Amino acid sequence: xxxxxxxxxxxxxxxxxxxxxxxxxxxxxxxxxxxxxxxxxxxxxxxxxxxxxxxxxxxxxxxxxxxxxxxxxxxxxxxxxxxxxxxxxxxxxxxxxxxxxxxxxxxxxxxxxxxxxxxxxxxxxxxxxxxxxxxxxxxxxxxxxxxxxxxxxxxxxxxxxxxxxxxxxxxxxxxxxxxxxxxxxxxxxxxxxxxxxxxxxxxxxxxxxxxxxxxxxxxxxxxxxxxxxxxxxxxxxxxxxxxxxxxxxxxxxxxxxxxxxxxxxxxxxxxxxxxxxxxxxxxxxxxxxxxxxxxxxxxxxxxxxxxxxxxxxxxxxxxxxxxxxxxxxxxxxxxxxx
Length: 338
What we know:
338 residues, alpha+beta, Beta-Lactamase, Alpha-Beta Plaits, 2 domains, 5-stranded antiparallel sheet, 5-stranded mixed sheet, elongated
């Protein structure tokens, strides 16, 4: 029975012959004779066979397996409109346009999409389509198979999620949880390019924990690691949404402030100092109130076309060392805007 309620033509002769060249009489007779065998083979597979008449865009056949998978009776698949209507809205336009274009061109093709079930859920399908031409080379019909690829898609999604998690981990400092040097390089390049395009100011802050070697020597490396984590948390809480905090190496941290002028950058770094002071992390070997402090180097510029981000980092780094030379627990800044 086909989708319109009429009996299908013998499946062996009609469905399986994909070319339009006349078959030898003996072969044709053999296929007609064993049409029931071919139908049984087709309808016993998990793949769902179907055929569409190109002139009418109507289904002349769809396998009964479709009802077991999606819940829609074969008789409900009348035209390609039924096929499109039962496709996920996010997939529909792209898949329909692709399949129509490939079919008009007479090109065999495949398409993955989510199909709606009668229960209101979605199942991932892969349609493998073969274009049948007539003796004049014109498109006569489309024949193909639908495959349930839901489990494959679930596996792919799990792998993709694991890949995203691995990528995220590869951009994070294992100790402090803030960005690592690799992420810093990527973010700086991205924000540098954006600042060049929009002629916008970009600010960079480098921070170094004062007398950290003495801290490690006195408290031990385990406590030193805990100190690094607390400083990283303080800096992360002090910045604004869209700013970047990373560990540059050792006890040195770096902050990237997109679209930020010198005055705003100064406010951010002052907030970092204030919050670190309020944290009151004990440091018996520090001359500054015996608590952990940091020195800061700050730089602001609008990147010119010939400017080099590495040179900018070196410039800010020199400001950091200037702050340390000036007694630590202070800020040194340079502004190349205006």
